[in-house]
Amino acid sequence: MQPPAEEPDDDALMLAFAAGDAHAFERLFRRHGGALLTDLAHLTGERATAEDLLQEIFLRVVRRAREYRPDGRFRAWLHTIAHHALTDQRRRAALRPTTRDAMDFHDDAELEPELATPAGGDDPLLRVHARELGARIEAALARLPAAQREVFLLRERAGLELAEIARTTGANLATVKSRLRYALAGLRRILCAELAANPELSHE
Amino acid sequence: MNDCARFEASIVDFLDASLPSAEQQAHATHLAGCARCTATLRAYRHIETSYRELPELELRPELAARILASAQTELRPARPLRRGLLLVAAGLALVLVPLAFYLTRTRAPAPARVHPVVELLQSGDALRASGRAAEARATYERALAAAPADLRAEVLHRLAQLALVGGDLGGALTLLDELCEQHPAYSGRETALLERARTLAELHRTVEARQAYARILAEFPRAAAEIERRLQRLPDEPLEELQALGYGGGQDY
Fold first, then answer.
1. Which residues of chain B does A152 touch, with a Cβ-Cβ cutoff of 8 Å?
2. For a tag on chain B, would you pick the N or C end, based on fewer CB atoms within 10 A?
3. Domain around B112
């Protein structure tokens, strides 16, 4: 979410906060909390886990506020902290081997996208209303490997550039591009399969 | 690698239009004659735009309160309180150690007790950290009623921050006014002064906010850069506010 023109920008709020202004922190939280909570809920598939992570992430923001450099990249910085909190959470979850994220988060042996989609230009996805499709994508994300899901979210929701995603996740740029491509192909494949099973979702 | 495979391999760069123009053009030419790659590109774009349109989740008020309270506890770790506790403990020790020495000769020693106001503050902090703002406020208010002068500032600041988190700017200002006026030696003074100035600005009491920032600058010159930034963001003083404060028509003051 971008601040309105008369609002102080993220850098100004972070500087104020680092100088001890708790009110500035609250404004940052209210500005970015909802979007980040949404991302975390889509990443983890569980609202309660997302809320716990949100608290952990903003506590890390408090602890690391003095490290922040006001370079206009607060959102990327916040998502880097989120990435580390998420990684820590997944490491803890790795103790519970039934959690799929724990198994697939660091798995780069991603499958080549299978283009089991229509050969012609008549793709059924294009006939699904954006709102309906958005909700189905949210559900389908849970079936992607976590690393692909994260790259997709950082690009589509957080609006980070691919190079920023690489810095945020500690992956190289080529890997980020591959993950995004596999995520798009995987989502398309999952959604097409759902549409084939539920043809009434397509609006002519 | 055929043209379809080449396009598929660079589709993310193509979506970003980040390819060299010759390569971008070669793919565009390929797309013009390839229904399958065109369908893939359109499907990906539809996936991206549909997903971007999903609304954000609402932050539940209890969650926001919990996070803000725990952040404030983190921001102002119990340092002042700890210092207060140490003073209280040192005072108690002066009394209790000889007393215990005496009592061990006659009966079992009495357990050392933390000052009841400090106990109330700790209970309030725990309630605040768990998002129970109303109960935290009630506990702090009990602490305020019983607080000796050296602990009153601690309680006032906690109440003020609770009021700020709850959006009660007027209530917060009253508390911060007392804190800043009556407790010049308070260890969290710089934070309190900044919060007060910020609250005045939020209440559109611009002239007073300017005065408050000037006062911080006088006391804490290290905050100069931050205050300068904040002052630049304040709107021009409204005439009626100047007049209400006794400054005729925006003259120098």
1. 51
2. N
3. 61-203
